[in-house]
């Protein structure tokens, strides 16, 4: 158990809908990262928040947005969902950044029908 | 542009022997490298890391070697155990700037009894 929690574990929805994925980092960690793993793909970086502020963006679609709240939990919002958004979404946390390893949650499996 | 590559999608090794997983990278700005292990339905679990100022880091049965001139790193597991059967991801990052991990596609390691 990495100490990072993600809810829900599974999510099934229809095209055009909007969903929210939630992540709670390890106790004491200030950084939260979101990654997407599509079928047969490696993990792709989406976005990084540090202590409530956005620090870096990767290949995140404009239909996707995220935020980190004062209690340091984070939410990833996916809207106008398409079939191709079906994937595993992982959240990771670290104390700061730099040489700190990132610890991953169990992921949320999103299926768009 | 695949900046981190794991060219072997799968590897099969006999229990007790050495497992060697390979990873190549193209971006010379990467200066920190990590290996993660992933079981089905779980998030990636951090295994071992190495800074670019070193060429070897050892932790129990796991050793990571870094050859900067060749832009190549490898993970050695010895002796291999059945519980080591998993997908192994190589990841790279820059210590300065965006704290995103760039992942390879993964290698599925199977340890045969």
Explain the overall architecture.
- The complex is a heterodimer of chains A (113) and B (113).
- Chain A is built from no helices and eleven strands.
- Chain A is an all-beta fold and 113 residues long.
- In chain A, a hairpin with a 2-residue loop joins strand 5 (44-50) and strand 6.
- Chain A is globular.
- The mean pLDDT of chain A is 93.
- Chain B is built from no helices and eleven strands.
- Chain B has strands at residues 4-5, 10-14, 19-25, 32-38, 45-51, 56-59, 62-67, 72-77, 86-93, 102-103, 107-112.
- The radius of gyration of chain B is 13 Å and the shape is globular.
Q: Briefly, what is this?
A:
With 113 residues, chain A is mostly beta strands. Chain A has strands at 5-7, 10-13, 19-24, 31-37, 44-50, 53-57, 64-68, 74-78, 87-94, 103-104, 108-112. At the A-B interface, strand 4, strand 5, strand 9 and strand 10 of A face strand 4, strand 5 and strand 10 of B.
User: What string, H for helix and E for strand, traces the elements of chain B in order?
Assistant: EEEEEEEEEEE
Largest interface: A-B, 30 and 25 residues
For the report, how would you describe the main beta sheet of chain A? 7 strands, mixed
Strand % of chain B is: over 45%
Mean pLDDT of chain A: 93
| Tally of contiguous helical segments of chain B | 0
- The outline of chain B comes out as globular
* Percent helix of chain B: under 10%
H-E order of chain A: EEEEEEEEEEE
Quaternary state of the chains: heterodimer
Tally of DSSP helical segments of chain A: 0
Report the strand count of chain A.
11
Query: Structural class given helices, strands, pairing of chain A?
Result: mainly beta
Radius of gyration of chain A: 13 Å
Q: Termini of chain A, distance in Å?
A: 31 Å
Main beta-sheet annotation of chain B: 6 strands, mixed
Judged by helices, strands and strand pairing, the structural class of chain B is mainly beta
